[in-house]
UniProtKB/TrEMBL annotation:
Span of the signal peptide: 1-28
Family, similarity comment: Belongs to the binding-protein-dependent transport system permease family. HisMQ subfamily.
The ABC transmembrane type-1 domain, residue ranges: 292-476
Residue spans crossing the bilayer: 296-316, 346-369, 457-475
Subcellular localization(s) per the UniProt record: Cell membrane
Alphabetically ordered keywords of this record: Amino-acid transport, Cell membrane, Membrane, Signal, Transmembrane, Transmembrane helix, Transport
PROSITE patterns: ABC_TM1
Name of this protein: ABC transporter permease subunit
Length: 492
């Protein structure tokens, strides 16, 4: 009977999740005819992009703040202007952009995106605003060895996952394809000889080569990698597509995107090629400080709510009430059985489609929920480690069960599990980096911003490694200090 009840609770739980998404999709479908009117009503057009693709989109440094710039941003501003609204740019991972569009986090996606039959099933595309070719980036030392794609046989070639170039390289016989999400990671892999070449958009390839010593760009010879760049909108958002197409048609009359937007973007790109690593990193100290602030903010709030959730669900799991016990087991096992990155994306894109949740709030909520499941098990083990006799003694002295748990059992349990809670806090601080996938400006996100702005791949990584170590080492020493206080008090 107990097993049947448990299965029933799990079934209801998953049906609830599916129902949530069904509601979201229905609501989206019912507003298809009012997209442009809704944009004009709110006065803002939200553009989603992945700012690691210069000169189309990249993070620039203005007055100590990172700001998304590039040819695609200029295009977005022109489209918004023609609609009579302001443009707001949201940064997120390339593979999260279409999800953000489908869950109404953004109104359009401009990110050097190519229209494919698979993508067209989920979103609507504008007309092409720019036709791009494919270039190869290679190390200067290989200039005489690699002339085009014919010389790649037997070698490893990198490309951004989901790009047309990635699909083209995969079709080459005898070539090993290495896919990565971030263009900066591809450049680092090339310079460290992990791969022999990088295939990417010709303009992007030239931008990286111009700002990185030791690498050059050559024609790929891959005409199958040439592609049209399109703007993506929610499926059925015909009014937005038509408005964007009008802007694109006007821009194409004098080829403004190629002759104006791209040259302007290239001029905006910082040139740190001949600058020392120390000087270039020091200029971005405000980025790292901002990342530290957000990382600590996420960690502190998440650990507080994690402990609160942990106590609640630990007591629920120890409860003799089958319903409370089943709910706690479902929560703990489900959260511990799914990746935290997926949970963060679910809260932001999934629940956020029903209730508009800012990225920082979504990150805190998801990390708190995740931490709560692990803390619940830690607390449960601490409670069960306390002798049953102590609880019985408390009851014999006239204390109620709640008073016994509050004043006798929990204080001793927390003393026993203090080291485990310290480990959970350290893990939580490091896991806060996963929130960067939804655009939260913590340390990992700021590292990406510095990489994109300086074209230096390893130095920003080394800096945040040191920062994470300082934070976690300090926390570990503090937890050790209080642990000693607890033990000293017990010995007294």
């Amino acid at each position: 009977m107990k097993h049947f009840k448990f299965i029933a609770i799990m079934f209801i739980f998953f049906i609830g999740l599916l129902g949530m998404f069904s509601t979201t999709n229905v609501n989206a479908a019912n507003t298809n005819d009012h997209y442009l009117a809704n944009i004009k009503k709110k006065g803002t057009l939200v553009m989603g992009t992945s700012p690691d693709y210069p000169p189309y989109e990249f993070l620039g440094n203005k007055d100590g703040q990172n700001e998304v710039e590039g040819a695609d941003v200029q295009l977005g501003q022109k489209i918004a202007k023609d609609m009579g609204v302001k443009l707001q740019v949201k940064s997120m991972g390339f593979d999260s952009l279409l999800v953000g569009l489908q869950t109404n986090k953004v109104d359009m996606v401009i990110a050097g995106l190519n229209k494919t039959p698979q993508r067209a099933k989920s979103v609507s595309f504008s007309n092409s605003y720019y036709k791009s070719g494919t270039g190869l980036i290679i190390n200067k030392d290989d200039k005489n060895k690699i002339k085009d794609y014919h010389d790649l046989k037997g070698k490893a070639v990198g490309a951004q996952v989901g790009s047309v170039q990635y699909d083209s390289i995969k079709k080459l016989s005898g070539v090993s394809t290495k896919g990565m999400e971030n263009a900066n990671d591809l450049i680092m892999a090339l310079k460290s000889n992990k791969i022999s070449a990088v295939a990417m958009d010709q303009s992007v390839a030239q931008a990286y080569a111009n700002h990185n010593s030791g690498i050059v760009t050559i024609p790929s010879g891959l005409h199958s990698g040439d592609s049209d760049n399109n703007i993506a909108f929610s499926k059925g958002a015909n009014s937005l597509v038509q408005s964007a197409n009008k802007t694109i048609t006007n821009l194409q009359k004098d080829n403004q995107y190629t002759n104006k937007f791209i040259p302007t973007a290239i001029n905006e790109m910082p040139n740190n090629k001949n600058q020392s690593t120390v000087n270039s990193m020091w200029q971005y100290k405000d980025f790292f400080i901002s990342g530290i602030e957000n990382t600590i903010l996420i960690s502190v709030i998440s650990v507080i709510f994690g402990i609160i959730l942990g106590v609640i669900f630990a007591l629920m799991r120890l409860s003799h009430n089958w319903l409370l016990h089943a709910v706690a087991v479902c929560y703990i096992e489900f959260i511990r059985g799914t990746p935290q990155l997926v949970q963060i994306m679910f809260v932001y894109f999934g629940l956020g489609a029903v209730v508009n949740v800012p990225a920082l709030t979504a990150g805190i909520v998801a990390i708190s929920i995740n931490s709560g499941a692990y803390v619940a098990e830690i607390i449960r083990s601490g409670i069960t480690s306390i002798s049953v006799g102590q609880n019985e003694a408390a009851l014999s002295l006239g204390l109620s069960s709640k008073q016994s748990m509050r004043y006798i059992v929990l204080p001793q349990a927390f003393k026993n599990i203090w080291p485990a809670l310290g480990n959970e806090l350290v893990t939580l601080i490091k896991d806060s980096s996963l929130a960067s996938v939804i655009g939260v400006g913590e340390l990992m996100y700021q590292m990406r911003a510095v990489q994109a702005d300086t074209y230096k791949g390893v130095a920003p990584i080394a800096i945040i490694m040191v920062i994470y170590f300082i934070i976690t080492f300090t926390i570990s020493r503090m937890m050790k200090y209080f642990e000693g206080k607890f033990n000293h008090g017990t010995n007294d």
